[in-house]
Design a protein that fits this description.
This protein is mainly alpha-helical. It has helices at about 5-35, 40, 55-65, 70-100, 105-115, 120-135, 140-165, 170-175, 180-210, 215-220, 225-230, 245-279. The chain is built from twelve helices and no strands. The chain is globular. Residues about 270-279 have low confidence and may be disordered.
Length: about 280
């Protein structure tokens, strides 16, 4: 029996994929359209996809009304620091969990899965009290530590899968050739784990860059607030949004994530293919 997909079935798959892509792209495309629309078009009863008179006025107003550059700098500092620290901690832990088949490793894996089920609201009060006792409220360093702890379980889960995909026979062969444990990890295992480490760091960065709830609760000083929190300042006292500047600022806030993914995704794919050839 042939395993090939029939013509109608393949057409249906492509149609479903196209619908899914449209579903994902619609909010972002509408955001871009709104960011470039003048005020009179934003209030129109018959909105259009393409602005009749595209303008950069919304971007100018956004920078005039709120300190976007300072907030972006805070978000970049927090996201980069949290992603690097999470990867540095998670990589050796994931290696041990993947290679040591023990009850402790099984329990740690279970903790990784269960920890993802806890909602933010459930942990925010004890977390706030702990950070208050450590004098880390209204501190970027405190927020970085929160993001590290929050992203660490999923980072471990990702890296454990990458470590298990590396054949243990390669490490055994290196040991037979006289390589020590450290040299084996650095010369054999680490290069094959590079795609997984990059993917994990990207995940941790995007998570920290987009996170809103913890930043809203833990940061009080305006000069320390991150970009997602600053975006809420475009809402008026009665909840009326300054739609044009808000769309412009939100569009700018999405660019770093898109750029990072565009730059890194080719290296991730290339690294995975290289690892497959080596194995």
């Amino acid at each position: 029996m042939s395993l090939r997909t029939s013509g109608p079935a393949r057409a249906g798959q492509y149609l479903a994929l196209l619908c899914y892509l449209v579903f994902l792209a619609f909010p972002f495309l509408w955001l871009i359209s709104t960011a470039f629309k003048p005020a009179r078009e934003l209030g129109s009863l018959h909105p259009t996809w393409i602005p009749d008179s595209p303008t950069l006025e919304n971007f100018r107003q956004a920078f005039d009304e709120q300190p976007l550059l300072r907030a972006a700098g805070n978000s970049l500092t927090v996201a980069l620091s949290a992603s690097l620290i999470a990867v540095v901690i998670a990589t050796p832990m994931a290696y041990v969990m993947a290679r040591q088949r023990s009850r402790l490793a099984t329990a740690a894996t279970g903790w990784v899965v269960i920890s993802q089920a806890f909602p933010f609201v459930l942990v925010i009060i004890p977390l706030f009290l702990v950070l208050k006792n450590l004098h880390l409220i209204n501190s970027l360093f405190g927020l970085i530590m929160v993001y590290v702890v929050w992203s660490l379980p999923f980072a471990l889960w990702m890296l454990v899968g990458y470590v298990r995909a590396v054949p243990a026979e390669l490490e055994e062969a290196a040991a037979v050739d006289g390589a020590g444990r450290l040299r084996t990890l650095v010369s054999v295992t680490a290069p094959l784990l590079a795609p997984g480490i990059v993917a994990t760091a990207m995940f941790a960065f995007i998570t920290a860059w987009n996170e809103f709830f913890f930043a809203l609760v833990l940061l009080k000083s305006p000069e320390k607030q991150t970009l997602p929190v600053i975006l809420t300042h475009f809402l008026g006292a009665e909840g009326v949004a300054d739609l044009g500047p808000l769309a412009a600022a939100a569009f700018l806030a999405t660019i770093p994530s898109l750029v990072i993914f565009a730059i890194i995704q080719r290296r991730i794919t290339g690294g995975m293919l290289a690892g497959a050839v080596k194995t």
